[in-house]
Every structure is written in C-alpha cells, then in structure tokens.
C-alpha cells in the first residue's frame, strides 16, 4: 500500500505539488497522468525520498524516507543514473548486496535475458546507450524484489520489445501483490495495464478513477475531457 497525504512541494516560488492526497492499494497498478510540468516527477521523487516536502507519505505503512521504507521500494528514475566504472552485472550485484536481496544468479540472468542485456553484462555503465541504461535501471529496481515499485516515465527511450516486456513485468508484479505507481504522459503505453488513474495538472489531482469507475470510457477521452476543463465528469 502506498499512501500520499496532503503532499505539498515548493521549489522556491514554484508550487509544484499542491496538497495532493491519494493511495494505491496493495497489488494495484496506479497511473499518475498529466501534461509536462503537472508535478508527476515531483510526487514520485518525494515518495522515493529524494526531496523535502510537506505532508505525509507511507510506504507499506512505513513513514516515507525512513530506512524501513527505503528497503521495500524499487525506483526507476526518469533519467537513468549509472556507475561509470561498474559493469551491468556489477550493478545488479551492487543492488543485491545493498538491499540484501535474495535474488538468485538464475533470476538476474533471466532478467537480463528478458531485456536483451545478456550480451551487455560485461559492458561498463558509460559504454551503454540511453535505452540500455534505462533497461539496466529497470533490472536494478526489480532486483530489489520490492513491495512497491515507482516508475517515472519508464517507457521513454525503450524499443518496442522492451516496452512489451516492461508491461508484462508490471502485470506480473501486480499479480504477485506488488504495488505500482507509474508517472507518464504517454497514454497509449498504459492503456491496457492501468487499474487506478490519477489525472493531474498544475500540481493538483483533478480526478481519479478505478478501471471499473471509468467503465468503457477510453483513457484518452477521460484525460482530455478532464484536463481541458469539462468538469462534468470529474468526481471528488
Ligand atoms: N529542481 C527544480 N527546481 C525548480 N523547479 C522545479 C524543479 N523540478 C521541477 N520544477 C518545477 O515544478 C513543476 C513540476 O515539475 P515536474 O517535473 O514534477 O512535472 P512533471 O509532471 O513530471 O513534468 P514532465 O512530464 O515534463 O516530466 C514544474 O513547474 C517545474 O518547472
């Protein structure tokens, strides 16, 4: 379970997130949707403990930024950060040790194969393309064996095969009870997988829906109706 209560974040004079509250139930796939600058990354970074903020965040009932919370989530940042001097395989080993993850060699091998990185495992971080870095970043977050997964625009820069694998992985995690939050403005990429949706603009959540509540409405139709201000279909 992921809970965000009255989250407010200001960068000097910019109010990036304005008193936002929402929760993603255990095992659900939550989507933060919104145009550029809506505040999606700020929310994800706040949950990941990378920013100071006002309000309260709870991850598996642990307070955000506590060591207990940090042990149970995986985070895929918008821009992958690699260690220049570690190989792909060493990145995974680093995560295994840092998180005391029980991921096995077979499992890390399978992850690398799934994202077509098997033949890259001896390459250094600074020898990878941006898409490869993104895939390594996803594998590292999965190697934590997290209870909560945070993805910030995870599909950007991935090839079609990796996008398909990532969507499959997300659905498998959800079936295993992992709680997922994905920030994106790429509606097409999350169309088939979302379960609970939070539509944001200008630092606020304008509307939220479960897939059942949205019934047969198309995600594009919902998004554009809400963000273009036809408030008739919004609910509190
Ligand atoms: N480090 C920062 N310093 C100052 N302002 C920032 C900083 N990071 C973000 N902002 C501002 O906060 C607001 C929200 O930005 P944020 O990156 O959270 O949006 P986003 O919804 O993730 O956008 P995008 O889809 O473009 O990634 C924007 O007005 C942005 O200019």
Automatic annotation (TrEMBL):
Database matches in InterPro entries: AAA+_ATPase, ABC_transporter-like_ATP-bd, ABC_transporter-like_CS, ABC_Transporter_VariousFunc, P-loop_NTPase
PROSITE patterns in alphabetical order: ABC_TRANSPORTER_1 (PS00211), ABC_TRANSPORTER_2 (PS50893)
Domain of life of the organism encoding this protein: Bacteria
Transmembrane segments: none
Pfam families documented for this protein: ABC_tran
PANTHER family (UniProt xref): ABC TRANSPORTER ATP-BINDING PROTEIN ALBC-RELATED (PTHR42939)
Protein name: ABC-2 type transport system ATP-binding protein
Annotated organism of origin: Lactonifactor longoviformis DSM 17459
């Amino acid at each position: 379970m992921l809970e965000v209560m009255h989250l407010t974040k200001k960068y000097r004079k910019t109010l990036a997130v304005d008193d936002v509250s929402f929760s993603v139930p255990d095992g659900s796939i939550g989507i933060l949707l919104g145009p550029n600058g809506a505040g999606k990354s700020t929310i994800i970074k706040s949950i990941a403990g990378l920013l100071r903020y006002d309000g309260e965040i709870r991850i598996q009932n642990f307070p955000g930024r506590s060591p207990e919370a940090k042990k149970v989530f995986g985070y895929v940042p918008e821009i992958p950060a690699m260690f220049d001097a570690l190989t792909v395989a060493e990145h995974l080993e680093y995560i295994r040790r840092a998180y005391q993850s029980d991921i096995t060699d077979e499992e890390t091998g399978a992850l690398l194969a799934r994202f077509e990185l098997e033949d890259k495992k001896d390459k250094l971080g600074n020898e990878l393309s941006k898409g490869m870095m993104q895939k390594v970043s996803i594998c590292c977050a999965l190697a934590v064996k997290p209870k909560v997964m945070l993805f910030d625009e995870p599909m950007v820069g991935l090839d079609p095969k990796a996008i398909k694998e990532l969507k499959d992985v997300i659905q498998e995690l959800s079936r295993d009870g992992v709680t997922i939050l994905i920030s994106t403005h790429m509606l097409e990429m999350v169309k088939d997988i979302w379960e609970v949706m939070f539509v944001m603009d200008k630092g606020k959540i304008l509307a939220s829906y479960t897939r059942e509540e949205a019934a047969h409405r198309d995600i594009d139709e919902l998004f554009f109706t809400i963000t273009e201000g036809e408030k008739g279909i919004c609910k509190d």
